[in-house]
Fold this sequence. Notes:
Layout: E1 2-7, H1 15-35, E2 38-43, H2 45-48, H3 55-72, E3 80-83, H4 89-98, H5 103-107, H6 110-116, H7 125-139, E4 145-147, H8 153-170, E5 182-184, H9 219-228, H10 247-260, H11 264-271, H12 276-301, H13 305-333
Parallel strand pairs: 1-2, 2-3, 4-5
Helix pairs in contact: 3-12, 3-13, 4-7, 4-13, 7-8, 9-12, 10-11, 10-12
The structure holds ligand 1.
Ligand 1 binds next to β1, α1 and α7.
Amino acid sequence: MRVVSGIQPTGNLHLGNYLGAIRNWVRMQDEVSSGGGQCLFFLADLHAISMPHVPAELAANTREMVAALVACGVDPDRSILFNQAQVPQHSELQWLLNGTARMGWLNRMTQWKDKAGKNREGASIALFTYPVLQAADVLLYQATHVPVGEDQKQHLELARDIAQKFNNDFASEQAPVFTLPDPIIPPEAARIMSLRDGSAKMSKSDPSDMSRINLTDDADTIMQKVKKAKTDPEPLPSDKAGLEGRPEAANLVGIYAVLSGMTVDAVLADFGGEGFGKFKPALGDLLVSKLAPINARFIELRQDRAALDAILHQGAAKARALAVPTLERTYEALGLVRG
Ligand code: TYM
């Protein structure tokens, strides 16, 4: 088993990232390292330059994200933790895969459509070819499993299409160059929604900080955000079917269920018939109790910049070593002479 996944260091880690992806990274790290497999987790800093950014902030956010991931339980001794910028094989493989990826495939990507919006002519080429770099990220390491939230599913399907076409075009059936990766999407919490709008996903790029719970938020801020979260005037229903058509209520109950390890129906058996005046403080308390230890550890780790840089440096050296054989086979398959 080879587990590979990434996160953009473009801001704070939020509850959507944590419940949708990072919790699964940690779970898989524990499973995989006892079974002889390998986990690679990286900061997608090369992806972050596809949108306008402030260089000093990207550098600071990259280090902060390392601290946040370690605080969540990613263990740099058991998993390989690094940033793309220190492993040039990612960019190299992307260029080689650009010959296989099709314009039509990229044109269909919903993230491209959402982020470019009406201003396609003004969007960066990096934003358009972003999914090809993402394919390179996983194919470079022969990833078998890629733990992500629901919003990354389409990008992973594209990675499979690129791998399949490359194998068909340039390799024999007996010796394919790339492994087709499987996305691992949690059945619950695959899509945590904004606290201000039940139809939008919780996201770093939402201009309102009130829309998300950051893993760096203190207890007062968390309670405040939960209290102000958008809801409807009805009391909570007593079963899951009653959440139909109530996206904000469904999101809050879903968060409670995942954090407490209960089913949605079990949560509603406790809170059905109650108003949000009772449910929100309970949810706030639960969030604070789960996030406070992560927050405390994050605050401690982020102070030691040298230690964070050392983690990335060592992780990158291990990642480069694993990346080289696949990259060389790719050059060779394409007929590119390497001396
Ligand atoms: P990013 O940085 O937007 O998010 C990191 C991870 O968090 C998940 N996620 C969510 N899950 C549930 N609910 C939400 N509201 C929510 N918001 C984010 C994402 O699905 C993701 O798993 N393109 C990727 C980074 C990337 C990558 C890769 C991932 C680059 N290369 C290779 C996997 C494999 C991204 O921008 O994720």
